[in-house]
Every structure is written in structure tokens, then in C-alpha cells.
């Protein structure tokens, strides 16, 4: 279990300002990053950018989570980057490691198949731990339970543009649940059986499927097959109460019981995306087209007026939205993107 010293919450959660009428309205929100001590340089780079483009004006707290204790040096180098509250949490062991009921022989065979197929992280157990943790557990971490909204950040990402408004309040005021910047297809071999499990779940629980869902985003044949499209979850601005709610809790447990996180290599991105697409209304999913962002080799760069007003440092032509394998066209008409 997490030691109290490691998980010491910061002294205020930033939302407790109701007593001060001169303070601007704030959301009950936090920035959150999962990282290893060895990620320090990339963590600093991401925090430095998000602080200078956005958070130095808003001062939302940061929460860092790790399956091992953060080093003194890590905390010292990260805390100095912001005036906001920063807390460092240890992930409870039992929510991170491969559960004992998983058949390790079968899991090993699953890893071997993905290694042979050359799938990225195909042989990695720690990557599977991370995907399962992001799918089903982070929002129950004691440092995150006080908050409703989170913005997921990863080491070594880029934020290209000034963000002059509060995206959390934007989401809250419009009744949004899930926000993304980049969408793309998943590697099929990592989720071979996922869609059949999803279909079983929704036939057992049709009551959770929203009448105004986004099945069109994830299926080209009205739900018969999965088209592999997902929102890229290394960037998420979303409502943790949705993950904590009845529909997603039952959905996650259903998936978990199949062992697919370990027998295959189910990613948190398709799982979050399928849930958001099916259990929310389409208008509750928001494309942050004004947030310039890059993870690995894929960027979303705002266009036109938003690029100019955001003083964006990205090349507007380096934009995955218009790439052949972007899934944005399944989410919205690209005409609306360009001219809407
Ligand atoms: P990718 O984006 O799919 O290539 O995966 P990453 O390696 O970037 O991992 C996703 C997120 O989980 C990042 O924030 C990583 O820092 C974090 N992460 C991945 N593996 C581990 C791990 O074993 N321990 C911890 N503490 N964080 C991890
Ligand atoms: Mn990453």
C-alpha cells in the first residue's frame, strides 16, 4: 500500500476558494502525469511548456504518479517549475501489477505472439500494467479522488500555443465529458478479442448505451466490427466522474475479468474511447482543435485564426488531422473542421 508520506496531499486543492468573491471561478481540476524517475528530463520539458502556455495564469495543481517512490531529486526538479501545488503519489501495488489470477502461461504466449508480429511494446508487462492502470484505476488514486476534472500529460510532449481560457470550465459549462486532440487507429493484434467483449457487454447492458452515441466514430458497420479508431489518450481533458460512474465501472470490470489486458495488450486509449463513444452523447466529446500538441511523431496544429491568436510555434502543415490514417473524419466532417 502507498505510504502516507509519499501520498501526502498538497495543502489545498485549488478549488476551495468559495470564500473569496474576488477570485475567478475555477474548476475542480488537476493536471496529472504518470512517470518514472528516469523520465525526469521529459517531465520537466512537458511541465515547463504547459506552465508557460497555460498554467502560470491558472495555477491548477499537478499530481504525479509512479509505481515506485519518486526520488528526492525528481521532486526537487519538478516542484521548482511552478507556483501551483504539486503532489507526488505512489501507485498501490495491487492496482499496478499483473493480478495473480492471470494465467501467466497464457499471458506469455500472448506476449510471444505480439513480439513475433513486431508490435510495439508487444513483450512488455510493465506497459500492460500502465495501460490497465490508466483504464481502470488512476481516477481512484487517493490524490485524484478529490477532483472531478483532469488533464493528462505525458513526458516529452509539446504544447505549441497559448491557451488563454480555462478548458476545464469550458468542458463544465457545456456539459462535456471527454476532450481530445488527436485520433488514429489502434494496432489490431493488440485488441483481437476486445470488440467481441464490448458487444457482449452492450447486449447485456443496453441501458448504458447513449441514444446519441458516437458509434459512427468507432464502427463503419453500425457496431458489427470495430474500425480501430480511438482518441489518443496521452492527451485527455476529461471528467473522472464518468470513469467512476456505474456504466464505466461495470464496463471496466467486464473487460478486466477476461484478462485481455495481459493475454492481449489492450490499450487505455481504445478502452476510454469506446466507452466515451458509447456511454456519452456525441456532443459531450470535444475536439480541442485550438490546442497545439505533439506526442511522438504526431502533431495537431491549429489552423488560421486559432494558429495566429495562439501564437502557435507549430508548422500548420504538420498536422495529423489531414493524414490518411487520422480518424478525425469519422468524428466530424473535415469541411466543418476547416470552415466551421
Ligand atoms: P506510449 O505513449 O504508448 O509510447 O507509452 P509511454 O511509454 O509514453 O507511457 C505512457 C505513460 O505512462 C507515460 O506518462 C509514461 O511516463 C508512463 N509509464 C509507462 N510505463 C511506466 C512504468 O512502468 N512506470 C511508470 N511509473 N510510468 C510508466
Ligand atoms: Mn507516451
CATH superfamily label? Spore Coat Polysaccharide Biosynthesis Protein SpsA, Chain A
Quaternary class? single chain
* CATH class category label: Alpha Beta
Assigned CATH architecture: Alpha-Beta Complex
| Beta-strand residue percentage | 5-15%
In this entry the ligands are: guanosine-5'-diphosphate, manganese (II) ion
Assign the structural class, choosing from mainly alpha, mainly beta, alpha/beta, alpha+beta, or little secondary structure: alpha/beta
**Mean pLDDT across every amino acid position:** 94
Structure summary:
By secondary structure, this protein is an alpha/beta fold. The protein is 38% helix and 13% strand. A 7-stranded mixed sheet has the order 3-2-1-4-9-6-10.
What does this structure look like?
Keywords: Membrane, Transferase, Transmembrane, Transmembrane helix. One of its GO terms (cellular component) is membrane. GO terms for molecular function: alpha-1,2-mannosyltransferase activity. The active site is at 236 (nucleophile). The chain is α/β, with parallel strands linked by helices and 340 residues long. The chain has one domain (29-287): Spore Coat Polysaccharide Biosynthesis Protein SpsA, Chain A (Alpha-Beta Complex), CATH 3.90.550. It has 15 helices and twelve strands. The protein has helices at 40-58, 72-79, 93-96, 104-116, 125-136, 167-173, 194-204, 215-218, 240-244, 246-258, 260-263, 268-279, 304-309, 328-331, 334-339, and strands at residues 29-34, 62-66, 86-90, 149-153, 158-159, 178-180, 183-185, 229-231, 236-239, 285-287, 293-295, 298-300. The protein has a seven-stranded mixed sheet with strand order 3-2-1-4-9-6-10. The chain has a three-stranded antiparallel sheet with strand order 5-11-12. It is globular, with a radius of gyration of 20 Å. The N and C termini lie far apart (50 Å). Mean pLDDT is 94; it is low at 1-5 and 10-18. Guanosine-5'-diphosphate (GDP) is lined by residues 33-36, 39, 66-67, 126, 130, 154-155, 234. Manganese (II) ion is lined by residues 154, 234, 295.
Amino acid at each position: 500500500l502507498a505510504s502516507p508520506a509519499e501520498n501526502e496531499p498538497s495543502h489545498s486543492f485549488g478549488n476551495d476558494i468559495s470564500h473569496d468573491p474576488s477570485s475567478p471561478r475555477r474548476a475542480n481540476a488537476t493536471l496529472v502525469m504518470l512517470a518514472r524517475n528516469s523520465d525526469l528530463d521529459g517531465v520537466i520539458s512537458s511541465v515547463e511548456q504547459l506552465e508557460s502556455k497555460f498554467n502560470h495564469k491558472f495555477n491548477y495543481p499537478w499530481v504525479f504518479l509512479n509505481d515506485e517512490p519518486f526520488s528526492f531529486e525528481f521532486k526537487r526538479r519538478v516542484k521548482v517549475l511552478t507556483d501551483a501545488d504539486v503532489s507526488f503519489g505512489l501507485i498501490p501495488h495491487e492496482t499496478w501489477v499483473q493480478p495473480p489470477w492471470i494465467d501467466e502461461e497464457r499471458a506469455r504466449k500472448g506476449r510471444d505472439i505480439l513480439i513475433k508480429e513486431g508490435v510495439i511494446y508487444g513483450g512488455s508487462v510493465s506497459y500492460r500494467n500502465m495501460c490497465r492502470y490508466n483504464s481502470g484505476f488512476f481516477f481512484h488514486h487517493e490524490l485524484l479522488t478529490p477532483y472531478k476534472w483532469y488533464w493528462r500529460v505525458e513526458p516529452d510532449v509539446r504544447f505549441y500555443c497559448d491557451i488563454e481560457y480555462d478548458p476545464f470550465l469550458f468542458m463544465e459549462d457545456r456539459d462535456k465529458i471527454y476532450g481530445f486532440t488527436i485520433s488514429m487507429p489502434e494496432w489490431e493484434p493488440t485488441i483481437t478479442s476486445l470488440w467481441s467483449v464490448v458487444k457482449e457487454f452492450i447486449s447485456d447492458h443496453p441501458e448504458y448505451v447513449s441514444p446519441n452515441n458516437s458509434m459512427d466514430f468507432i464502427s463503419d458497420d453500425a457496431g458489427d466490427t470495430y474500425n480501430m479508431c480511438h482518441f489518443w489518450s496521452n492527451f485527455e481533458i476529461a471528467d473522472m466522474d464518468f470513469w467512476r460512474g456505474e456504466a464505466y465501472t461495470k464496463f471496466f470490470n467486464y473487460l478486466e475479468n477476461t484478462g485481455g489486458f495481459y493475454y492481449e495488450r489492450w490499450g487505455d486509449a481504445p478502452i476510454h474511447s469506446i466507452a466515451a463513444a458509447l456511454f456519452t452523447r456525441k456532443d459531450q466529446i470535444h475536439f480541442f482543435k485550438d490546442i497545439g500538441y505533439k506526442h511522438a511523431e504526431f502533431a495537431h496544429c491549429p489552423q488560421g485564426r486559432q494558429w495566429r491568436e495562439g501564437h502557435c510555434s507549430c508548422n500548420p502543415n504538420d498536422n495529423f488531422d489531414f493524414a490518411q490514417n487520422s480518424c478525425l473524419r469519422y468524428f466530424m466532417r473535415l469541411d466543418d473542421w476547416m470552415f466551421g
